[in-house]
Amino acid sequence: MRIFQWLNVVLSGVLFCLLLAPAPASAVPSECENCHAKISPVMVKDFNRGKMAETLTCDICHGSEHTSAADADKAQLPTIATCRQCHPEQAAQYLDGKHALGQVALDAMPRSHQQPKAFMAGQKGCGGCHTLGLADAEARKSENRQYYKYGMDCQNCHTRHAFSKAEAAEPEACQTCHMGFDHPQWEMWSSSKHGVTYLMNRIINPENKDRAPRCQTCHMAEGNHRVMTPWGFLAVRLPEEDAEWMGYRTIILKGLGVLDPAGNPTARLDVVKAGKVARLSKEEFDTERAKFVAVCQQCHSPNFVAENFKNADQMVKETDKLFSEAIAIVASLYEEGLIKQKEGQPYAYPDLLTFYDVDTKIEETLYEMFMDHRMKAFQAGFHMNPDYATWYGFAKMQKDLVEIREMAADMRKKAGK
């Protein structure tokens, strides 16, 4: 009997909530829906469950030239300019940040244009995330961008056609791009104490889930869409006051092609600046760092925050020490003629941005040391995941260095040197 009483109470409560719940959004009547309800019904359903359906019709974003299946190519696809009409502040923040430069970073890779079209332009590889930044409709239509007409900006987080703010505010919205080989922020955060606490409370105590930070708490503080970090993707800042560390970094900058083998700046420095993948002044670095410090101090004491940032910075230095030695070893093999300069390669020096397009095992190991293990070692330090920093990062870098030393010795032995 008590079970039935309990069920009656629960069901009454559910019914009460349903009666009080706001009615779902209802789209302004649109002729587009009559057709798309037949050919893409979930698209229509998604739009109608979203907030924008209360005031907007399809033509606001897609234009009015497309009226039948015969002229479907006339349907305009939204760009950042479309979103900016209603969301100027968020659009301006986004365009000032690093996410808007995803395509710039991809184009900076010297061999990206040699990859399969489906892999890059067809978005089945790097292009799947790095179409971010193709905001201009004409750029999407150009010959070498023919597949990029579906490039994403705001829609990457506020997925179409619901464009939900609530969805975009959850950490899973970041997971598609920020996971895996070279940027496993999802894996590091979700298994850190921050991530575990947030995800557990989202289930057992939803009203208390924000007692731990999610991605947006730190990277989009107060809803700011700029998204920028002090260290940048390459974990490089200039100038560096620590002379020993600057020595390591000089070798790394040569490997990145920002400096030539003699230490002189190259044209690639402009590409690094354009992509905002490094901080090139103390003021710029300190400004970005201060924003993160302010977020951390909402929960932690100033001393705790300062100590953790200091140790995370030192982890970058320790990774640079190992990495610079590895680059120098491979560079010496170029100098000795044991590794031949590839066609189109500007210098007889390892080029880290060619990634896996190399001809020797030792360079492949150097690439993995850079893009996989160094990235994990330094990123995990800032995402509060010591296990990731150790076993997937720093320990793997030490293994890489041992292998590179042995391979270099073996190559010299086989060459009679």
Automatic annotation (TrEMBL):
InterPro entries, A to Z: Multihaem_cyt_sf, Multiheme_Cytochr_ET
Pfam families in alphabetical order: Multi-haem_cyto
Superkingdom: Bacteria
Gene3D superfamilies (UniProt xref): Hydroxylamine Oxidoreductase, Chain A, domain 1 (1.10.780.10), Hydroxylamine Oxidoreductase, Chain A, domain 2 (1.20.850.10)
Signal peptide extent: 1-27
Protein name: Cytochrome C
Record-linked SUPFAM superfamilies: Multiheme cytochromes
Biological classification of the source: Bacteria, Pseudomonadati, Thermodesulfobacteriota, Desulfuromonadia, Desulfuromonadales
Species assigned in the record: Trichloromonas acetexigens
Sorted UniProt keywords: Signal
